[in-house]
Amino acid sequence: MDNRLHPGQMLGTYRIIEQIGEGGMASVYKAYQVSMDRNVAIKVLPGQLAESPEFVKRFQQEARIIARLEHPYILPVFDYGEENGIAYFVMRYLEAGTLKDKMQAGQLSLKEIDKIFMQLTDALGYAHGQGIVHRDLKPANVLVDSTGHIFLTDFGIAKLLESASPRLTQTDAILGTPAYISPEQAAAGPIDQRSDIYSLGVILYEMVAGRVPFVADTPLAVILKHLNEPLPLPSIVKPDIPMFVEQTIIKALAKDPKDRYATTAEFAAAWRHSLDGVGSLYFEDDKKDNAPFSGQAVSTTQTVSKSDASKTIIPIALGCLVVLCIVLFLAGGFGFATTLFTQPTATAIPTSTPAPTSTSAPAVSPTASITVLFKDDFSNQNEPWGLLSDADQTIEYVNDTLKAKLTPTNWFVWTRPNDVDYENVHIETTVYPNNSDQYTAFGLMCQQQADNDAYYYFVITPAGQYVIAKTKSGATDLFLTNNDDWAYSNVIPKKAKSYRIGADCASNGTLTLYVNDQKVDSVTDTSYTKGMVGVVIWSSETKNGITDVNFDDYLITAIK
């Protein structure tokens, strides 16, 4: 059946203007919608499908689901219909090219790749959250406008066409885009969101390396390579690809879905982590309004070896194996929390632990009408905060914030602005988590003694947990709250974009934790009555226990 449309022809309430695209799965037309006085794009599915009542029913069901997708990076579907044996979708019409066109025009910069990739992961993650798998992710289905804004198209169409087989040939219905197809889809196996993650990995491979990983003379030969051949390393195709970027791509393109990233958010976090090691990448036009807190910024880093870092005497403590800590401490290196591995970790907390009933008290932190002793918005990089950069951890200035990152599991890091002993103070800072594991911890420390191993710390997690603790050289950290254990508080919002964390370190031994100006908990301990202050981060014991946060607007005031 010929379902080709001609200029001037009506399809429902839409007047066809011209054909603007054609592929194995559908034809696309520019049309005019009189009632809305606008141009639209109409995607027409193969004509023989509408002959099947079963397909028409399924088409209507799937079309309603697709039309409900509302996301800034997904091309909206305005309408759908079936008329005279023609099934069609009506979408927004854009004067935009495709990602395929953009890549064919020349090699993309790393900045362009990052922007496109992050938008794609955002769009796909939203769709996956709605229970929708794309199934035909490829550059030709990604529209890119003149500002670099992307619009992902054709959700659900591959699923519709696959369900129509054998009315369509297997090549058209299941194997429409061999270069980007996942092994399980090529083998007609079960499909879930990890199939899209594989296809997204192919797109990322192509953007970075300049070509797709598998090339052959026939579509079938390409498919067999996806199924059976080892992945050609991106660095073989393009030798200057950074190692961390390559590792991120390799995981996404694992043959077994279980070995890939489980979600697009996990993929995006790994990608951003890989860029942290790319010293040549710096976004000059990043603004504090949207970076780094929204995940849109990439920081410059300086990679040094651990041995080199340990020779630099700066006020930072690194959690590590006890033996190594002792050796470094005796050698005059950093101060270390040597008992970290013997204390409870965030991931070991039973989820059934009840939240303490005392944490809902709406007490406000006492910052009003008091003397400011020190403040820092991190816009002046000459402030004396301890900085560090190596393969496992970084403390650095990024976009007028202090960025702190840990990649090893169960590591503890502190840094402070000076060597001043403060007494009877309130301290606070704003923390912005960046794709951190939900069981990593971050917060404040105070009353640090001269040996650097004795102090109090106040930390929370994005999962809503908290602790006020005391460290002492040669002893296991003592959790002063909740019977020496972690606990949950309903004052701490879960997975928030930012937290304003405050702490009272009073000379009478009262230690109080605040989050967003509300009291979480308070204890009394008189071991240390004055000392140095700073910020801390602590990674969890999960496999992907990355801690990545930014501190801003640090403040020390006197308690009267």
Would you write up a description of this structure?
The chain has 560 residues and is of the alpha+beta class. The protein is built from 13 helices and 27 strands. It has helices at 53-67, 99-104, 110-129, 157-164, 170-173, 183-186, 193-209, 219-228, 234-237, 243-252, 264-275, 306-310, 322-330; strands spanning 10-11, 14-22, 27-33, 38-44, 77-83, 86-92, 97-98, 142-144, 150-152, 316-318, 372-376, 388-389, 393-398, 401-406, 412-415, 422-423, 425-433, 441-448, 455-460, 465-471, 478-479, 487-488, 499-505, 510-515, 518-524, 530-538, 547-558. Strand 18 and strand 19 (455-460) form a beta hairpin. The protein is elongated and about 85 Å long. The chain starts with 9 loop residues before the first strand and ends with a strand.
Biggest β-sheet strands, sense, barrel? 9 strands, antiparallel
Number of helices: 13
- Helix/strand-derived category reads alpha+beta
If you compute it from the alpha carbons, what radius of gyration comes out, rounded to the nearest whole angstrom?
28 Å
Strand content: 25-35%
**What's the mean pLDDT score?**
77
- What is the global morphology? elongated
**What distance separates the N and C termini?**
86 Å
> Considering DSSP H and I runs of 4 or more, what fraction of the residues is helical?
10-25%
Write down how many β-strands occur, each being a DSSP E stretch of 2 or more residues.
Answer: 27
Low-confidence stretches: 165-175, 279-369
